[in-house]
Structures are given as C-alpha cells and as structure tokens.
Design goal:
7-stranded mixed sheet, 28 helices, alpha/beta
Length: about 900
C-alpha cells in the first residue's frame, strides 16, 4: 500500500541512465535509444565509467559528476555494480531506481539483499530488477527496451512479464489505443502490484487498470489495494498458470476442491477484479474500457447488414448473460418508415445486405434515441454493393455528433467490421469507437462493461447483518482444538467435532465413540430407543477416508446387526491398514431424508491466500462431480448467498416438483459460521462437512473431518493471520461510561451500517456537517455512504458509538492510514444535540489507542480555523496545531505516537 515516492519514479523531472552500452543490440543501448526517441522533456544524463559518449550522448563517469540530482536512476549495469549505484544515488538524494538488469539472486548475502538494504537506508523506491522497464507517455519517458513507444491514453498496464508488456505495446500501436503508463515489475524487489494499483487508482489520467499476474507474494496487501482500486475504476487481470495443480496434496475433499487457480479466481472476485482467460480477451477488454463508459444496464441493440452474424451475436449475448434489447413501438414505427420492408422488424436490426451508409445512419440514429436499449453494437459484413469504409466513416461521424449532444453521459457504441482493413480500423478507433474483428469479440467487449458496472454495485451493496441471536461459544471450541494440537494430533475425533459444531450452533446427527463392540451395541440401543436406525464408522486417526477400507456400514436396525457390523469393520481396517491405530467405531444415528440435498461445506488452506471457504455438491464423488465454488473469508450472508449461487447444485436448493425448497439461508448461515470459526480458531487447517443434508426443515451435518495444527502466521498485522481479507475486529468493541453516568457502546463500523449512518446524519446540523466536510452537504447518496461503510480494515478504521439506553447512534470517528502505513488521518462527527458530554474526547482517545496498536507513528487531521472546540480538544490531547500554509482557513493538527 505504498505510493511513497512513486510519482517521482513514474513522472520524474530528471532521469539518469547508468550502464548504457556502446554495443549495438545490447539492453543498455536499446534503453538509451528509446529514451532519446521518446523525447523526454526533463533533464537527462548518461553515466558510464568507460565511455565519454555513447550514440552521440555525452557520458560522465559517475552519478555525482552530473550537474543535477536525478529523481529516477535507470540501471542497466552488471548485477555486481547495482548495490553501489543505488547507494550512491540515495546519498545524492534520488527518489528511486528502475533496475532493468537481472542476476541479483535471492536470499541472505545476495546482491538482491544488498540492493534492498542500500535503498531502504536512503528511503529510495525500486522497480525491478529483471524487467522490461517503464513507459510513461504522459511525460514522454520510455525507459525500456520495448520495440515501440505507446501513445498517450487512459489505460495503465502492470505486468509481471516483460514480453507481455511488449506485446501489449505492439497491439496498442495497431489499434490506436494509448496508455497512461506501462510498468514491468520484474522480481518486485520493492514496488509491487499492490503499490502500483494504489498509484494508478488515484491517477486521474487512468480510466482502467490492466494486470498480467503470474503469482502474488503478499495476498493481504494485494486484496486491500485491488478492492480499493476496483471501487473507482475497472481493474482487469489475466493470470497465467490456470491449469497448475495445488501446491500440496489435500487430505480432505474441500482441500482437493480448492485448487490453486480456483482460489485466485475467488480472490479476484472478492476484490472486484474482472478476470479474463487470455491475452486476446485482455486486448478486447482494453479496447472496450479504454474508449467508453459502462452502460446503465445490459440490454444490447444490434444493427447489422447480415442476418446470420446478427443472430450469432444474439446467441453469444444470451450465453454470456446479456439481454437482447427490445425495439420500442415508437422506434419501430420510425424504422418502418425509413427502412425497406424487408428489414427484420426486431433485434437484431437487420437492414439487409444492400444497406449503404445512409441506411446505416438512419437506423443507428433511431437506436441511439430509443430508451429500450442500453448500448448499440454496429456490425458490418463487407459486400460489393456498398462501401464498408464509407459506412464506417458515416457511423463515426454520427457517433461523434451523438456524444457532443450527450456530454454528461452517452450510450456505448461498439463495432465489428468483419474482414476490415487497417484504414477502417483506424477510422473507428480515431473516433473512440471500440471495434473488434468478430461479433463474438464485440459482444464480449460489451459484457466486460456490464460486468464492471455490476462489480461496482456489488462493492457498494449493504449486506444483511448476522442474527443477533447467534453467539458462538468460541472459547469452548478453541479449547477443543488447542487440546488436540497440544496432544500432537493432526485430526479431531468425531465426538470432538460434534462438540465443535455445537459451539457454533451447527446441527450434527447424534454421534458416539465406542472403544469396543459391546459399547457400540449399548450406544446403538440408545439410538434405537429414539426410533432411528444406526450407522457405524471406523474410528482411527490414521484413516481419513473411511469408505476406502470398508469402514462404513449403513442402516443397521438391530443390536445383533450392530455387533456383527462393528466386528467386521474393525477386522477389515486392521487387515487393509495394519499400521493404522484403531480406536473402535463411531456410532451415529442413521439420518434418512428422502428429499434432502447432499452438500459439502468446509475450509481449506491455500499457501498464498490462507483460509478459503468451499461449497458444493456433496457425497463420495465430490471431486468427480466437481460442482464447487470458493470464497475468501470473512463472509456475511450476502457473500455466502453469492458463493452458493455460483454452483449448479444451488438450483436444487429451490423447490421443484414435489420437493420443497431448502429452508431460506440455512445453508448460507452455516457458511458464515464456518468462516467465523476460522477467524476464531486459526489452528483449524482444513474442515470438511460432507454430507450436509439440507431440506425445508434446516440442515444437519452427517459426517465431518477437521485437520488441526499450530497456527501459521501467513500475514502480518492485526486480525486473523490466516485471512487475506482482514476480518471484522470484534476485539475493539467497548462499553464506556461518560459524564452523568451516560453509558455508551462503541464498535467498529460494518458494511450493513448504511441505514444507521443515514439516520444519524439527520441529527447533525448543517453547520456541524460543514465543519466536518469543509463544504455544505445537502445530500448523502447511497454510493457516498456505502463507500464510508465498506471499510477495508487493513487500511482504515471507523468506530461507531451508540447510546446503550436508546440504541441510537450518537457519534463516529474514523482513521485512514497513509500509503506506507506510518501515519493516519482522522475525522470525527457527533450528534449535534449531544455535544459537550465527553463523547468526542472518548472517541478520540479510542482512535489514538487503535493507531498505537497498529504501529502508526502519527495521527493528523485538517480542522477549520473556526472549529475552536475541536482545536482546543486537540491541544489537550497533545496534538501540535499549526496553520495550513496553503489553506488559510485550515489548521494542520498532528500527534506523534
């Protein structure tokens, strides 16, 4: 999350190149030529100890001999020289270095470590090593060895592959697509994907961010940055290695289902990132997102001179989840009057194969005016009757005119000219019309726009809260697990699992552990007395999959049958697994629910993203059926519902024929509880409930396996160390007693608090709102409040205070960290009718305590000069108060922690 000095590296005013070679064809020579050709407008210097000039550019022997201090040092020198070059640049005051060279190695004592140490000593930022370089058209800087320099535009590309970045540049040159910046990050010695996401998310020149990812090093940092960026602009990723297997063999079904790529897919979905499968789709995404805004809906009107290609486009649209637009009665009437009687009369609007430019123009004009569609796709199949180039020119002129008339927002117009030559592509591209070689590509381009709008809506949704009645016995559950870990065990016993599920209010069939045959018969008699039949399972810490050794016998109805089955189970297990420890048999009630659905739910451990929640179709063939979906915890009910809906089995949870629907949210609640259990008990490595029976009465776990072990600290910072997305910090809930015995409950803000915030703001005067927001606030939109409540606890915190007697919200205090998580900016707002009772003081002390616990070094804020009450409180709390030199109405307040 560090944008510290990144602007100096990506928009430098001065650059020095160290290591440029006189040898033609070398990397250093290519970088030098590219910097010269791009026409960098700032100061530029060349450093080479062995040559006085290279390619007509004068060189000096070392950085300190330049007549300026370069903001950015580009290094193509041999690896062994790089630590010294970085150290010298840092001593001179350079902001950072771009290391194109490779060969720094890894680990203690390596050149990589020495270079990193030298940079940290001087506060320098480093991009690379082993990278293509950077291309920043806005400042005419091409510090790379790519073959071409892209034009200026509004797309940013962050790539772990230099070859991919170079390929994007070549593609962009052909399509007339420009970039706000291209950064090849190489080995990420310092600046990583998350840092650059933060940078380009705040860059007003960037409309969309494209990512090429091979692997993510810091998942929590990536998730925080990606989620923040996706709120404000499209983020599109292509991830290589989709077919790669998981890093380790899994011992449970959920572990086996949670393959590495499936976890990445879940992570991208949770972050609001659009994933595409290959470079062609990435190119198409860039073509679309770089030219037009997202539509308000997903109704697409298709204008074509070929019926077949129009129908193919409709088919693909429906397949991808789009909606073929209807033609309004008014628009159809006008089209009937303007088009030949042989036109299709519906969508796709087929204006017949002899359609000329004029016919295209009149049809397109009516579709743009029609309110029954959200976007228009124009298709053209070239014929000998009408000029495809003339039609393209007419369409672009009409689109330009339409956009000028609708400057605030215009419908997206996309195009596909089948077999178009480069001149037609340039005509469409120069007008900002996204264009594609086929109708399939064009429809996909439209759906990227739709998906981005849906992502933004999803990120601003207000999910329902967990029922207040659910209070898990986390302490009791933790004792079960920690005792097993202390005993050196890797698996919980079935009876322990039953108690663990009970602690989180998850129903499980009656379960008993019998150490011998006669005890099994005794337990079975208790079950028979309740009118149920019995199932027996082998009890062994070494046999995870019981059915593999014939260790499960179902539907036992008599004591004698139990005695025979128990004897047989133990004998078979000893014969097939002689090395296994046999503890006896598990005796369970045989649950027979003819109309219940068999599901699998569980937790798996991923080496990159930590704990993952898995849901899908259950039973013994879960891996073969492979109907599953994954999500990163923590979960709320809405996220759990979304997880369920991404599976085929979700359709069976609804009513069909004589089968009633599964009890609403019964399955989703179990998923939320499992995610909470993972947060409370990091010693749980894998959790497998299979099957979970679900019907109209609720859910019941029939069998479960739980793998445990010492907690692994995957992520730094507070919160569950096994979660890539930082969980709700319940440990910061407080009950406070203020003046006159006023009792207050304070807790961290939650996404579902939007209605509470709206109600609270109604009790704040316009004057107090202006003091808080520095401007009159007449309206608070859903988007504005949702952005406040959808906190990423990895970089921000807000505490809400409630009056315990009335339950009403009475105040809120916020803290948002800077990009390097060293200081945070605070803001506070109280109900206007409750000021002067000590609440502001208490909330400020709480946010200061929180900042200290997070390791922040300072808290700062901006306060209006007229807000004397806040300024006095800041002074009493130890803040330093100074006038803002650039804003005479403001004071800067800062507290060193």
């Amino acid at each position: 999350m560090s944008t510290y000095r990144l602007n100096n590296l990506l928009s430098p005013r001065s650059v020095a190149l160290v290591g440029a070679s006189a040898r033609s064809g070398s990397v250093g020579r290519a970088v030098l030529e590219n910097i010269r050709k791009a026409g960098f407008r700032g100061q530029f210097g060349l450093v080479n100890p062995r040559h006085a000039e290279i390619g007509g550019v004068a060189a000096v022997k070392s950085l300190d001999r330049l007549d300026f201090v370069p903001e950015l040092v580009v290094i193509t020198a041999p690896a062994g020289e790089i630590p010294g070059i970085v150290d010298q640049a840092g001593r001179l005051g350079s902001a950072g270095a771009l290391i194109v060279s490779a060969g720094l190695g890894q680990g203690p004592g390596s050149l990589h470590e020495a270079t990193s140490t030298a940079a940290r000593k001087h506060g320098m930022r480093l991009i690379g090593p082993n990278c293509l370089g950077i291309m920043m058209p806005g400042v005419s800087l091409n510090a790379s060895f790519a073959a071409h320099m892209p034009g200026a535009g509004n797309l940013a590309l962050i790539s772990q592959s230099g070859a991919i970045a170079a390929g994007m540049v070549d593609w962009a040159a052909q399509r007339g697509v420009g970039f706000s910046g291209i950064v090849s990050i190489g080995d990420q010695i310092d600046v990583d994907i998350a840092d650059l996401l933060d940078h380009f998310a705040m860059d007003h020149k960037t409309r969309a961010i494209l990512l090429y990812i091979e692997a993510i090093k810091d998942a929590r940092k990536f998730m925080s940055a990606a989620r923040a960026a996706a709120r404000v602009k499209p983020v599109v990723v292509v991830k290589s290695g989709r077919m790669a297997q998981g890093a380790k063999a899994a011992a449970t079904h959920t572990g086996a289902l949670a393959g590495a790529d499936a976890v990445y897919d879940a992570a991208f979905r949770r972050a609001g990132v659009l994933r595409v499968s290959d470079l062609r789709e990435l190119f198409d995404c860039a073509e679309t997102l770089g030219r037009v805004e997202s539509p308000t809906g997903k109704r697409l009107a298709i204008l074509t001179n070929g019926g077949g290609i129009g129908v193919l486009a409709i088919d693909r649209l429906v397949e991808l989840g789009g909606i073929p637009a209807t033609i309004s009665a008014e628009a159809r009437k006008k089209l009937d009057a303007a088009l030949p009687p042989t036109w299709s009369g519906a969508n796709p609007v087929d204006i017949v194969g002899d359609a000329d430019a004029a016919r295209y123009a009149v049809a397109l004009e009516e579709l743009l005016a029609d309110r029954d569609n959200d976007a228009v796709l124009v298709l053209n199949v070239q014929t000998a009757i009408a000029s495809a180039a003339e039609i393209a020119t007419t369409v672009t002129e009409l689109v330009r005119k339409y956009r000028e008339q609708h400057r605030s927002w215009a419908k997206p117009v996309l195009a596909a000219w089948v077999g178009a030559d480069q001149h037609i592509i340039q005509t469409l591209s120069s007008a900002g019309v996204p264009n594609y070689p086929t109708e399939d590509d064009a429809v996909r381009g439209f759906m990227y726009l739709v998906r981005h709008r849906e992502v933004v809506e999803e990120l601003s949704q207000v999910p329902p809260a967990m029922p207040d009645t659910f209070v898990p016995d986390a302490r009791g559950a933790r004792q079960i697990v920690t005792a097993a870990v202390a005993d050196g065990r890797e698996w919980l016993e079935p009876v322990e699992i039953k108690h663990l599920l009970e602690a989180y209010d998850i129903a499980m069939v009656p379960t008993y552990a019998a150490t011998d045959v006669e005890q099994a018969v005794a337990y079975a008699n208790d079950i028979f007395a309740q009118g149920d039949t019995v199932v027996l399972k082998i009890m062994s810490r070494d046999i995870v999959h019981k059915s593999d050794v014939g260790g499960v016998v179902l539907n036992l109805t008599t004591p004698e049958a139990v005695r025979v089955a128990a004897t047989g189970i133990i004998a078979r297990a000893k014969k097939l697994r002689p090395e296994a420890r046999i503890g006896g048999v598990i005796v369970q009630a045989m649950v027979v629910k003819a109309k219940a659905r068999e599901l699998i739910l569980g937790l798996a451990d991923d080496p990159t993203f930590g704990t993952v929640v898995v849901f899908g179709r259950g039973g013994t063939a879960v891996e073969i059926i492979n109907d599953k979906a994954l999500a990163l915890p923590p979960l709320d009910l809405q996220l759990a519902r979304d997880l369920i809906e991404r599976t085929r089995v979700s359709r069976l949870l609804r009513a069909y024929r004589d089968v009633p629907a599964v009890k609403p949210d019964a399955v989703a609640m179990v998923l939320v509880k499992l995610a909470q259990m993972a947060a409370d008990i990091p010693e749980i490595r894998e959790f497998d409930i299979n099957p979970l029976l679900a019907d109209e009465t609720g859910v019941t776990a029939v069998d479960a396996r739980v793998a445990v072990g010492p907690p692994q600290r995957k992520f730094v910072g507070s919160g569950p160390a096994n979660f890539a997305v930082r969980a709700y910090p319940s440990q910061w809930e407080r009950r406070l007693k203020l003046k006159d015995d006023w009792r207050i409950f304070v807790r961290p803000m939650r996404p579902e608090d939007e209605p509470i915030i709206h109600e609270f703001l109604g009790h704040v005067t316009p004057h107090d709102l202006r003091l808080r927001f520095f401007a009159p606030m007449k309206e608070f939109t859903h988007e504005f409040i949702a952005r406040l409540t959808q906190l990423d606890y990895a970089r921000a915190m807000a505490f809400i205070a409630f009056d315990e007697a009335t339950g009403e919200m009475v105040g809120v205090v916020r803290l948002h960290s800077d990009s390097i998580y060293e200081s945070g900016e605070y803001a506070i707002l109280l109900r206007s009718d409750l000021k002067g009772r000590g609440l502001g003081w208490a909330l400020m002390q709480l946010i200061i305590d929180y900042a200290r616990s997070e390791g922040l070094k300072a808290i700062s804020g901006d306060v209006l000069q007229e807000n004397t009450v806040m300024l006095d409180m800041c002074r009493q709390l130890g803040f330093e108060v100074k006038p803002d030199p650039s804003e005479p109405d403001l004071c800067d307040v800062k507290l060193k922690l």
